[in-house]
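Exercise 7. Given the components listed, write out the predicted structure of the assembled complex. Treat all entries as one system.
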Amino acid sequence: MVTDVQIEQAAALLRTSRRPCVLTGAGVSKESGIPTFRDALEGLWAQYDPSELATPTAFERNPKLVWDFYEMRRERVRPAQPNPGHLALATLEKRYGALPIITQNVDDLHERAGSTQIIHLHGLIARDRCSRNCQGDPTLIDVDALGWDRSAGPPVCPHCGALIRPDVVWFGEILPEKALSDAIAVIETTDLMLVIGTSGVVHPAARMPLEAKRHGAKLIEINPFRSELTPHMDAWLEGASGAIMPRLLAALEQA
Ligand code: APR
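Answer.
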């Protein structure tokens, strides 16, 4: 259980910060009902490892299987609501006037919580694009406007006929150029990074806290379990973000 003293120590670090930022992973959306990547998949999908489905090879080999995997995940994301962890970050942005959030998550819960400076390193699951980006990067396509039956697997691009795919980054693919350069600009100027709900195993996101630290930033992690990044932290608040973030915010308001 995280003590009030630990919360106060983290709040004291935040109080000294002039340019805080955040890195989030799937853990920040767990309390909104969206399983993390390291959670076991359920039902039909239990036999699959996400890293075997979220790849260009898997999509080439079996487009409908990969499309259906994302349709299942979109059905999980659609009804999800921002949880107190997302909402506390939105309040923190108002307090600081700016709080860039670099996220690995493909849901839009930070946006729906009211945060406004979000950098999606791995894309957005609600969007689809031409797999060839035939009209430019990205060539977004509104599949519903095509009148397509989503259970029939991926439609084809109305411009070039290539398969349409979710606008997310798959294993082995490069990150969106603008997202990466925006994240680097934040990392090079921040003086404190909150690292929330990430196992710290997927690069380049996992390197970002270390880069920020190299530029002199303090690191505070919020995670109920140790991650690959915990040893590098100035503070580790061992708990769920939906419980810890409101306590951290309350401690900040008390000063
Ligand atoms: N609050 C905070 N953290 C939590 C919570 C919670 N309520 N519940 C779980 N966690 C932590 C877990 O302990 C774990 O460290 O969230 C982390 C989730 O780790 P992953 O499932 O690996 O998710 P993430 O780190 O975002 O994965 C990175 O891997 O599969 C790729 O592209 C995918 O963006 C994803 C990337």
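Discussion: The radius of gyration is 19 Å. Strands lie at 20-24, 101-103, 118-120, 123-130, 140-141, 164-168, 192-196, 218-222, 235-237.
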